[in-house]
Amino acid sequence: MDWKRFFDSIGLNGTRWQWKIMLWQRKLKQGGHSTHGYGGSAMATNILLILNLAFFTAMVLRGIFYGGVFNALLHPGSELLVISGGQWWPWVLEHHQWWRCISYAFTHAGLIHIGFNMMVLYQIGPQLEREIGSAGFISVYVLCTVCATLLGLFWHPDIVVVGASGALFGLIGFSISYFHRVGGQYALAQRDFMLKWALFAFVFGFMVGADNAAHLGGALCGLACGALFPITVRGRQNWRVPINVVAIICTVATGASLAMVVASWVANHV
What we know:
Blueprint: H1 3-9, H2 15-29, H3 43-67, H4 69-74, H5 78-83, H6 89-95, H7 100-103, H8 111-155, H9 165-182, H10 185-208, H11 212-228, H12 233-267
């Protein structure tokens, strides 16, 4: 029975459901064991969700104190976004605030913005993290975050940039190239689904004026990571130490970046 088509017909056609259905089908076909996936929890995804929500809440509270509920919650101004950790290359280059290359991904321009991004992270994050492991997941997420904003430096260096969408496009790009290499009916179905989503998101981004520079930068980095990430048991054993080292560096860099945001609040009397 085609369970994916069955669930589509009753409306359960979201990304998370489709990925779960494909995973279950693959496990059944393999006798209940995954050839490629790590399994386990989605700890990194959950931590990222919590941090994004926490920093958005802090931004809203600060905005309410200075400018009112409506603006802070739905349409925060550029000044509030920069103060809250947003990327603004003039301050990065002139004042050496390199931490903004990561902290911007934890700053969002309103309730709708963070709601959409966190929905996407919640949908695709746990499945991909269980497939490649928490160390691989956090490495891809942070590397794509940095690459997304670096492309923005050449595309629009004077525009304030916020949001996790660059990193999320990185996860999508990673999924496309990674599952293409894994092969098989269900991995290729995941690849095709993510490819269609990427194309739709790019078109939608042009229509609404989103930051497609960050989207493209994150997607290209994700594609490269997916092309290099080991897919065999032996390959993962050989690359376990390098992947863990990169994950530690990315985790420390992210923690330091967010700590610098908080330190800037304290320095400016919150």
